[in-house]
Amino acid sequence: MYRKKLLAVVLIGALGVSACGANDQKPAGDAAKPEKGGTLRILSESRTLNLDPAKSQSLAITTLGLVHRRLTGWQNAVGQHALVVPDLADTGKTSDGGKTWTFVLQDGLKFNDGTPITSADVKWGVERSFAPAFGGGLGYHKDLLGGGDYQGPFEGKELDSIKTPDARTIVFTLTRPYGDWPWIASTPAFAPVPKGKGAEADYQEHAVASGPYQIAKYQKGVQVELSRNPNWEPAKDQVRAGLPDSVVFQLGQEASVVSQRLAADSGDDRFAFASSFVSPAQLAQLQQNPSAKSRVVTSKSGAVAYLALNTQKAPLNNVKVRQAFQYAVNKAAYQVASAGTAALAGDTASTLITQGIEGREQFDLYPSKPEGDPDKAKALLAEAGFPNGLDGLQLVLNKSNNQTDKGEAVQAALARANIKVTIRSLEADAFETETNLADNPTYDLILGSWQPDFPSANSNIQPLFASSEIGKGGYNTSRYSNPEVDKLIEQAQSTVDPAEAGKKWAAIDKRILQDSPVVPLIYTRNSFIHGSKVGNFFIADFPAYPNYLQVGISK
């Protein structure tokens, strides 16, 4: 399991929206020029702010990165693929084809309390992520480090797969070659925690900082204030600009109210941005306000939304039946149900690898109009032995994600191809239980959405389609199991050269879609609004979120 189900639920419910089309997005630095100083305010719908790297699923360019550095970081910009770059350390070297990785930390790095950051602190941070009390964070590294039954460092045990021959060198010996390990080293668990510290449950409220900011005040459910870390050196950090003097997170804010406040652009809200997407209804209102409209920034693309087909349940265990769904869906109707118009919702999708990922290839194995081709779907069903169509299928939705409109659009489209579907809406906990069942789940169809945790097709494909991710908290909701694909995934993961790996992932994308375990629907778009004094607020090609680490305040 790489993410908790809760995060998947959030992603499933996320609407990618655009006011004027993705190409109207302001390029980085085109608007207000930020300067050093001032207080940046981030208005959050969430009532919690997780600043514990072991528990966090934060992207490398968002919240956690303000307080914690990691071994590696991301460099992203509009019109460019994201790159893995040095952060605390270099980007790693391997001499045995990707099984052993060595990183060397920069000299002279310090925590906010002035103590040196050493390789032992990074090792401790990674080991701490194995402790049951600090679960919930991204766990791509755990199997690769041979964690097994390891329960963390607090009982005096260490992971033999991590060595620290000196204070600046850390060596990881993996269970198998893994070319994306430099990307894995940018995930939250690779932030340093001072060796011997972090056993307390509330560590997130007073975590020791390695980034440009330290925790000054933590008010649960209300507000978190960050102040400058006096021992952070800008010259040694190419990932973070560290421009504001302080950053204030205001928690528990109503998203619709936040949009109205930022549109009004008065007082402290001029120095703020919203961490939540602008909803389609709110976006339509903002179009009537020229000032607000100019402060809406939209991603080119985002998560891939898809219809998952339970491949282990008849009649969906028949590949011809599954291929019929590729033509039966009405992607144009799904766009309207998602965000009102196609321009707001995002482009129709035909691949599993999301846009903005290096190595992605655009293709369509099932070409048709955006409205679909019901006659082609009926013909495939007839070839599969179902000349009268299908009846009795269940589409399971998560109530908390407001999926009804989208589910009904899918239901109506399938009916045109004589595929009769009933919708069953579940509360979040029941939905999680249903999709986590190891054996015999009752659902036939599920709506899902996915944006990778790091900029590699590996993070698109493996979590959703490897056999190991079926049930037990995994995200393979199509319950797709193909030994050939599992082997191809492992081969691609073992490839160190990014260009060569990209070609392999693109081939796997096509191979999986031949089996049609899911129907790609759209690549969603995300829009965010900011105050007039917020500068360098941009969304790069990946991910579909603003880069918090580069934002500043203009005078």
Automatic annotation (TrEMBL):
Superkingdom, taxonomy of origin: Bacteria
Keyword Signal listed: yes
Signal peptide (residue range): 1-22
A GO MF label: peptide transmembrane transporter activity
An annotated GO cellular component: periplasmic space
Keywords: Signal
The keyword Signal appears for this protein: yes
BP term (GO), one: peptide transport
Limits of the Solute-binding protein family domain: 84-470
Name of this protein: ABC transporter substrate-binding protein
Organism listed in the record: Lentzea alba
